[in-house]
């Protein structure tokens, strides 16, 4: 197992839950298990990150991805 992994933070606050973070998290999980990304990433669930109006929120490399989607994340990976 790789000792170095990049973290993908996914907000699990109440507004992001309403915005579909559970499904998003599932899709991200599938993505990072796929051949190209396997073992390189780790998903971390967070509490509210104070960007509720832009739910669901993802943070990658210190960058906030508002209205997060797998497509948007893929562009940034
Ligand atoms: S609930 Fe996700 S940023 Fe507030």
**Sheet/helix structural class:** alpha+beta
- For CATH, the homologous superfamily is named as Glutaredoxin
Main β-sheet, in a few words? 4 strands, mixed
Mean pLDDT: 93
C-alpha end-to-end distance? 20 Å
Ligands: FE2/S2 (inorganic) cluster
Low-confidence stretches: none
Q: Write the CATH architecture name.
A: 3-Layer(aba) Sandwich
In total, the number of strands is 4
CATH class: Alpha Beta
The H-and-E topology, N to C, reads as: EHHEEEH
Helix content: 25-40%
CATH topology: Glutaredoxin
Strand content: 15-25%
| Estimated radius of gyration | 12 Å
With helices defined by DSSP (H or I, 4 residues minimum), what is the helix count? Answer: 3
How would you summarize what this structure contains?
The chain is of the alpha+beta class and 77 residues long. It has helices at residues 14-18, 21-33, 70-76; strands at 6-11, 41-46, 58-60, 63-65. The longest helix is centred in the middle third of the chain and has 13 residues, at 21-33.
Secondary-structure topology with pairs:
Layout (H helix, E strand, L loop, with lengths): L5 E6 L2 H5 L2 H13 L7 E6 L11 E3 L2 E3 L4 H7 L1
Parallel strand pairs: 1-2
Antiparallel strand pairs: 1-3, 3-4
The chain binds FE2/S2 (inorganic) cluster (FES).
């Amino acid at each position: 197992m790789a000792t170095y992994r990049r973290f993908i933070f996914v907000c699990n606050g109440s507004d992001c839950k309403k915005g579909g973070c559970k499904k998003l998290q599932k899709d991200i999980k599938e993505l990072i298990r796929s051949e190209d990304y396997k073992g390189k990433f780790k998903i971390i669930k967070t509490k509210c990150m104070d960007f509720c109006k832009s739910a669901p929120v993802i943070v990658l490399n210190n960058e906030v991805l508002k209205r997060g989607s797998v497509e948007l994340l893929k562009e940034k990976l």
